[in-house]
Amino acid sequence: MAKIQKAYTCGGCGASYRRWQGKCDECNEWNTIIEEKATVSGAPKGLSAKKGNSIELVSLDQPLEQAPRILSGIAELDRALGGGFVPGSAILIGGDPGIGKSTILLQAMGALALKGEDCIYISGEEATAQVQMRANRLGLSKAPLKLGCETSLRDILSTLDNTAPPKAVVIDSIQTLFADHVESAPGTVSQVRVCAHELISYAKRKGTVVILVGHVTKDGQIAGPRVLEHMVDTVLYFEGDRGHQFRILRAVKNRFGGTDEIGVFEMTGGGLNEVTNPSALFLADHNAREPGSAVFAGIEGSRPVLVEIQALVARSSAANPRRAVVGWDSGRLAMVLAVLDARAGLGLAGCDVYLNVAGGLKVSEPAADMAVAAALISSLSQIPLPEETVVFGEISLSGDVRSVSQADARLKESSKLGFTRAMMPKAKKAGASDIQEHTLVRVTDLVTHFFPDGIG
C-alpha cells in the first residue's frame, strides 16, 4: 500500500528537499520552499524485470513530412512564432498583468474562428460574460469561437475528449487549474507541473495547438516551476510599459523557429494593432537638434529596428551620484561609464546619469554601447549629434570599438528611414552606398567629434 509522506518543493525552480529550509540551494532564492504531500510507493527502487515495449527508431535521412503551419491572421504574432502555429505544439505566453495577453489571444482565436477553424477559449480567471464583453469591444462578437469557464483539469480534458479535436485551445491561465488527484492548492509547483503535462500530452496526441497563459513574478519570470518552460515548445513574453502604447511580443524559446524574434503591437481602445514599421513609430517624436539623444540601429531577431536612446548627464555634489536606467542593462551602463572615464578622461564619476530607451523598448544587445556613449557625451558637451545620423558598435574594456553582426541590415533600415550617416565600427562588408560611413576605431574617436580641441 502506498504511503503518504511530506515533501518540500521550491516554487521558483522546482527543486525537491526532504525537509524545509529557508534558502533554495539550486536558485538561491529565499522563502520559496513550500510543503507538499508526495505519494511514495513501498516497492523497491528501480524498474521491475518486466520488459517494456520497443520504440521505433528512424534514420536522419528518412523523408520528413512537415505539417503546414496555421496562420493566425495576425502577422506580428505569426512572426514571433516563426511563421504561425505548428499543429500539436504547446505554447506558453507570459507577461505582466494588464499587458495584453488575453487580448492578443482572443483576437487570434477570433480570427481563426472567422476563417472556419474550430477553436476553444477556456478561462479560469473570468466568467464567460466577461470574455464576451471583451470580444464585443474587439469587434469579434460574430466570431464562432467556443468559450468556457472552468478550472478543473479533469472536466476540461473530458470536454476536449468528447468533441472533435479543435485546431487550437487557449488555457487562461495555467496557474488557476487544479487536478483533483494532487493534494495541493492551485498554482503550486505540483499542480502547475501536472496540469501542464496533461495538456501538453493532449496536444501531442490530438495534434491540437495548446496555448497556456502564465502569470509572472515580480522579476518578470514565469511563475511556478522552471521546468514548465522546458516542457513547452515555445515561450513568448509580452514586454512593455503600461504607460506606453507599444507592446513587444518576444520569443525566448522556439523549437520551430528562431529565438529573440519579436512582434510589435500598439495598444488601442479596439485592441492590439500590428505595427509593420516599428522603427518609424519609435522615432516619431525624435528631435535630432537636442543634445543627449542618439539613434541606435539595432537588431531584434531577424528584424532591424531603429530606436532613440536618451541620456541626461548633470553634475552632482552628492557622495554617491544617481544612476537611473530604463530599457537597458544598468551593469552595462556602469561599464560604459567606466570606459569613458578611464580611456577618454571624461570624468563622469561625479555626475548623475539618467538613461532611457524611448518607446518602452528593452535593448539587450552589446551593439548599443556606442549609441549610449554618444548620447552621454552629447549631453555632457551640450552638442547634439549631426542630423540623420545613426550609431552602433560594441565597446570593449580597452576602449576599442568592436564590430557587430548584420551591419548591412542596420544600414539598409537606416537608409529607408532617411538617415544619411552612420557612426559605426569597421565592417567586414561594404554597407549601403547611400549611407556615409564614419568609422570609429576607439571610443576616443567619438569623444573627439564632440571635443575637437580636447576636454577642457
Task: Give an overview in words.
The protein folds into three domains: 3-40; 75-276, 3-Layer(aba) Sandwich (Rossmann fold), CATH 3.40.50.300; 280-450, Ribosomal Protein S5, domain 2. 25% of the residues lie in helices and 26% in strands. The chain has eleven helices and 21 strands. The longest helix is centred in the middle third of the chain and has 18 residues, at 189-206. It is globular and about 80 Å long.
The third-level CATH topology of the largest domain is: Rossmann fold
Question: Low-confidence spans: pLDDT under 50, at least 5 residues?
Answer: 39-44
Query: Main β-sheet, in a few words?
Result: 9 strands, mixed
Quick one: how many beta strands? 21
- Beta content comes to 25-35%
Shape: globular
How many domains, in number, for the residues? 3
- Find the CATH superfamily of the largest domain: P-loop containing nucleotide triphosphate hydrolases
> What value does the Rg take, in angstroms?
26 Å
Which terms would index this structure?
3 domains; 456 residues; Ribosomal Protein S5, domain 2; Rossmann fold; 21 strands; 7-stranded mixed sheet; alpha/beta
Short overview:
This protein has 456 residues and is an alpha/beta fold.
Draw up the topology in text.
Elements: E1 3-10, E2 16-17, E3 33-40, H1 75-81, E4 90-95, H2 101-114, E5 119-123, H3 128-137, E6 146-149, H4 153-161, E7 168-172, H5 189-206, E8 209-214, H6 227-231, E9 234-239, E10 246-254, E11 262-268, E12 271-274, H7 278-282, E13 293-300, E14 303-315, E15 323-326, H8 330-344, E16 351-357, H9 369-381, E17 389-391, E18 394-395, E19 401-402, H10 407-416, E20 421-424, E21 436-439, H11 443-450
Parallel strand pairs: 4-8, 4-9, 5-6, 5-7, 7-8, 13-17, 15-16, 17-20, 20-21
Antiparallel strand pairs: 1-2, 1-3, 9-10, 10-11, 11-12, 13-14, 14-16, 18-19
